[in-house]
Design brief:
The complex is a heterodimer of chains A (about 300) and B (about 350). Chain A has about 300 residues and is an all-alpha fold. Chain A is built from twelve helices and two strands; from the N terminus they run ααααβαβααααααα. The longest helix of chain A has 30 residues. Helix content of chain B is about 70%, strand content about 5%. The chains are: A mainly alpha (about 300), B mainly alpha (about 350). At the A-B interface, helix 3, helix 4, helix 10 and helix 12 of A face helix 5, helix 6, helix 11 and helix 13 of B. Chain A: It is found in: Cell membrane. Chain A: This is Nucleoside ABC transporter membrane protein.
Chain lengths: ~300, ~350
């Protein structure tokens, strides 16, 4: 393979990986607090349509992103209420969120199909850094949201592992009863984590409709929400590994795109299968591996917490 | 036993769930779900009453509508029975959609390979292949689940996308009908490969198959040792292991049968309704089936009733499409209903009382 194509694949891989990164960081926060939210796909779609609609209406891209985050957060709030307060089954509640979000976004977005986005995120090459050969193109010639995502990974990593807030969040996901006994409001922490996670999923959706493919299309996330969920497992609930994973997945996506320029003829359907296939295999390999190590899955993931069961 | 939700109120666990509540809560959830979605209609300037009238009339307001509702209920009954079996064992088979596609693929393969076979040979062959292919698609994620505890929620889901893309590849590629005016579908099946319908409706033998499977499920789960094992494995894997039940074998078997029945749903749909394999042969039956199973609380009889209701929603959704709504509006309704079903469960099990009353 020529160098230029490798660089192109990796650079496109970062852009394709960014919505996955936002969404999986959000899910990571939620799961660290012990709540599994299978509604990522639905929250992304709502984020995508809201962000796009607000962008069209206000001509302000930042208003679009903020509205998308708000909408994603509101969606997550439904899941939080059902699964934390009412102790509903987290799997079914998350699925309901995805089904609802898919329908609502299609309904709200109907008039927006074919409308061009008035303002979109443009590539801003960072002066100096972007001139580094290879790396400059791969890492520093993107839109602002990509740079924000770099910062977000560092921030979430720092908060999780180096602050008291992070300790509280993790303890709620590991052993809510002990956290409760230590005076932590388990319900409040879980609510915050789930809603924050939803906001990041909303942003992930808006990245698709405002930067990646600036437009609105019904069901435009095309399963990325599910890949983001698998990515959290791949990342073993660690934001740095989530970053690496998102870019690997993004690059597979990009590889399919560049394959044709290399003259490799593979029906596009098989290339589109790759991320799902790859995730499945990774899932098996990692689960086997983590069985022998103590890390990984938050102990209380997927389990509702009731004080009386303490 | 109490949970604080608001200052002066508390939720108290009921001793037992009353029969009346078991019936009222799902209906109330349905109604509240429609009202919730209605708010979104109102916010966008549509009159919800008009929307629902249109929807109801389309689904239940005519003989044609009613028969189409049954037609849509058939794949839902089959797929919901499929997932409910797995759910009983706490196996989250979210892959019915993909298993449906693989069943449809298997049946189509036989139908296209042996079109000259007589119907009494061809249809059973399609049936068995549909079951096998769906079953294998369910078995693939079951193996890592059984042996290494790989999360089946995610893996069954990923398998959906692979199955759908595989069928897309076939109908856009090698299996595309050369005389099909470039539509993504295979050539039509020979008359021998078509599952008969009743009278002049499109209601077909899949309905009978679904009812028979419901009866078999009821008997197995209620009266057999294996049914008992499934329940115990679902409720407490530890107890199951202690009692000497083969947990691994049960996972594999249940997921294979679950996938197989979803595959039958795919077989009956291509054989009776589309009469060829085409892109998007399932408009999400496998996902809707999960809602059906949950609404019906995994009860085979309730699954039949709920499938009929949600089938009506799909048909009604088609009729509102002609008035400018996207087809996915139905997903919005389904999701909203499911929210209230989940919320309603707590009403069945708990009651709200004022603090300090007793």
């Amino acid at each position: 393979m020529q160098d230029s194509i490798i660089v192109a694949v990796l650079a496109t891989g970062i852009v394709a990986g960014t919505p996955l990164l936002f969404a999986s960081l959000g899910e990571l926060l939620s799961e660290r607090a012990g709540v599994m939210n299978l509604g990522v796909e639905g929250m992304m779609l709502i984020g995508a349509v809201t962000g796009f609609a607000v962008d069209v209406y206000t001509q302000n891209i930042w208003a679009g992103i903020l509205a998308a985050m708000l909408a994603g957060g509101l969606m997550a709030l439904i899941h939080a209420f059902l699964s934390i307060t009412l102790k509903a089954n987290q799997v079914v509640s998350g699925l309901a969120l995805t089904i609802f979000g898919t329908g609502l976004s299609a309904y709200l977005g109907k008039p927006l199909i074919g409308v061009p986005a008035p303002v979109t995120f443009k590539v801003v090459a960072i002066p100096g850094l972007s001139e580094i050969p290879w790396l400059g193109t791969i890492l520093f010639s993107h839109d602002v949201l990509v740079y924000i995502s770099y910062g977000l990974v560092a921030l979430i990593w720092f908060v999780l592992y180096r602050t008291k807030t992070g300790l509280i969040l993790r303890s709620v996901g590991e052993n809510p009863a002990a956290a409760d006994a230590a005076g932590i409001n388990v319900f409040r922490v879980r609510y915050l984590a789930v809603v924050l996670g939803g906001m990041l999923s909303g942003a992930a959706g808006a990245y698709l409709s405002l930067a990646y493919a600036p437009s609105w299309l019904e069901n435009m996330t095309a399963g990325r929400g599910w890949i983001a969920l698998a990515l959290v497992i791949f990342a073993m609930w660690n934001p740095l590994r989530a970053l690496a994973g998102a870019y690997v997945f993004g690059s597979i996506d990009a590889l399919g795109f560049h394959m044709q320029t290399l003259g490799v003829v593979i029906p596009s359907f098989f290339l589109k299968m790759l991320p799902y296939l790859f995730t499945f295999i990774i899932l098996i390999v990692l689960t086997r591996e983590t069985k022998n190590r103590r890390v990984a899955t938050p102990e209380a993931l997927g389990v509702s917490y009731s004080r009386e069961d303490r | 036993m109490q949970v604080n939700i608001m200052k002066n109120w508390q939720i108290e666990k009921r001793g037992s769930v009353s029969k009346l509540m078991q019936f009222v809560v799902p209906l109330l959830s349905l109604l509240l779900g429609l009202i919730f979605a209605g708010i979104f209609f109102m916010l966008t300037g549509k009159n919800p009453v008009t929307v629902y009238t249109l929807l109801f009339q389309g689904a239940f307001g005519s003989t044609y509508g009613l028969s189409e509702t049954v037609v849509k209920a058939i794949p839902l009954i089959l797929a919901a029975l499929a997932v409910s079996l797995a759910f009983r064992m706490q196996l989250w088979n979210i892959g019915a959609e993909g298993q449906f596609y693989m069943g449809a693929f298997g049946a189509t393969w036989i139908a296209l390979s042996f079109p000259q076979w007589p119907a009494y040979l061809l249809l059973p062959a399609m049936f068995v292949t549909g079951f096998l292919f769906g079953g294998i698609w369910g078995l693939i994620p079951a193996i890592p689940r059984a042996y290494f505890k790989v999360n089946e929620t995610i893996s069954t889901l990923l398998m959906n996308y692979i199955a759908i893309l595989w069928v897309d590849y076939l109908v856009f590629g090698p299996w595309k009908d050369p005389h099909g005016y470039n539509f993504p579908n295979t050539a039509p099946f020979s008359p021998n490969a078509i599952l008969p319908a009743f009278g002049r409706t499109r209601i077909h033998w899949g309905l009978i198959i679904g009812l028979v499977i419901a009866v078999i499920f009821y008997i197995i789960l209620k009266y057999t040792k294996w049914g008992y094992e499934i329940r115990v494995c679902g409720e407490s894997p530890k107890a199951a292991a202690y009692a000497g039940m083969n947990f691994v074998r049960n996972i594999l078997l249940v997921m294979f049968i679950s996938g197989g029945i979803a595959g039958i749903a795919g077989m009956t749909e291509v054989s009776a309704i589309t009469q060829r394999l085409q892109q998007g042969v399932s408009p999400g039956y496998g996902f809707t089936a999960i809602i059906v199973a949950w609404l019906a609380r995994l009860n085979p009889w309730a699954i039949i009733a709920v499938s009929f209701l949600l089938g009506g929603l799909l048909v009604g959704g088609f009729s509102i499409q002609t008035s400018g709504f996207p087809a996915a509006t139905v997903s919005m309704l389904q999701g909203a209903i499911l929210f209230f079903v989940l919320g309603g469960e707590i009403l069945g099990q708990y009651r709200l009382t004022r603090k300090g009353k007793e």
